[in-house]
Structures are given as C-alpha cells and as structure tokens.
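Supplementary Text 2. Reproducibility record for the structural model of the 238-residue chain.

All settings were left at their defaults, and a single model was retained for analysis rather than an ensemble. We include the record here because the model underlies the residue-level annotations in Supplementary Table 4.
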Amino acid sequence: MREFVFTITYDAGADPLMDLFRDNPDARGRSLVCAIDTTQFWQLDRVDGPSDTVADAQSVLTSDDYDGFSVSNLACDGERFTAVLDEGARRCVLYTSVACENRCDAVPFLARRYLDGVLLLDVQRANDAERWRILMRDDEKVGLLYDTLSARLRDGLSFSFGHLKDVTKPPLDPFTSMVLSAEKGRVLEAAFEHGYYETPRETTLDELAAALDCPRSTVSYRLRRAEAELVREFLSVS
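Retained model, structure tokens:
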C-alpha cells in the first residue's frame, strides 16, 4: 500500500473550524474519512481541548450553515447528517455523512475520483493546518490529485506536499486506545477531563482519586503506566 501526505494551511477567516484551532493552540482535531464514491462520504471527527473550544467546534460541525468540506469555491450541495456520538468537558466525537448532488471539491471526493482502492483518509488538525494522509492501493494517478488540489484551492487556503511512499505505519483508530487496559484508560481520560495536563494544573492526584473513588496510590500508578505505554507506542510508530 501507498500513502500520500500533504498539508492544507488556512489563513485567518478562511474557515470557522480552523479559526478555532488557530486561536486555541491547545486544541487538536482528528478525523477518519471514507469516500463511498464521488458523491458520498462519511467521517468521524474528534476534537480535544479547552471546554469552550470543544463546545464551539461541536457547534460549528453540527451547524447546517457550515460548508467547510469543499476546498474550492464550489459548495457541497446535498444532504448532510451529523450526530454527536460522545461529548465531555474537553472532548467531542461526531459522525457525519455527506451526499452531494453536484461535483463537490471535497478532498474525499477528489481522492475517490482519481485513486483506485482508497482505504482511508486520516486528517489531523492543529493551529492553522490540516495534515491529510491518504492510504491507497494504487498511486498511478496521484499526480492528477496533486494538480487538482493545487489548482482548485479557494483564496485563503494553501497546499504543501508532504510525501508519497509506502505506508509508514498502519492506520490507527484515533478515538480509542488499543494499548491501554480499561483501568488505565479510565484514569488517563479522567486526568485529561479534569485538567490534570493543563498548565497550570486544574486538579491534583488527590482530587482525581476522589473523583474516581480509588486510592491515590492506585491512581498514580495507573497514570504513570498509561503515560509510559503511550510514549512507547508513539516512539514505535513515529
């Protein structure tokens, strides 16, 4: 399998969702996208960050007025369905399906138009940029996708090439951790939700232990082990 990696950078005011990431450097977004054909795709979106930013991002993504899917001036007209799958103080997960009646210039549609066997589109959002990773079976026509993306971007968006090569790592589910036990995952999620990793910290180990109804020593041990496993996983795939 091959992967095509590129970045789309957004000027201020070019997209309301990306403006949230630009204005809140601690916020992060991740999407898994699948193009069914050149007129339909679905995606899972996760946004993590300060509670206000997460709430604003959820509001943007569920708004009928948001049309941030197309990278050109050609809007994606048609049916859209969005459902909130999970939400918390510092995280939201949403499912969206889009069915377009016109020839929309959304990246999933463009990828499906030119590439055979597209398995997955993985998008990471931070600050003013989206990093796209497209996994495909055949990259024979990837040059056409490159040219189309470069030529059709609307004002305020810019394109930069990353790489085209064999898959560097398997696709991972950004919404769940396969390396953590349920106990470690619960402690890590609680630490994040309660602001343990904020600067300055918004909670203490004692407060986490009380919230989880666990001994402080247990919470501390599980948190250290979870952090160690995540670092090990990151280093093994980076």
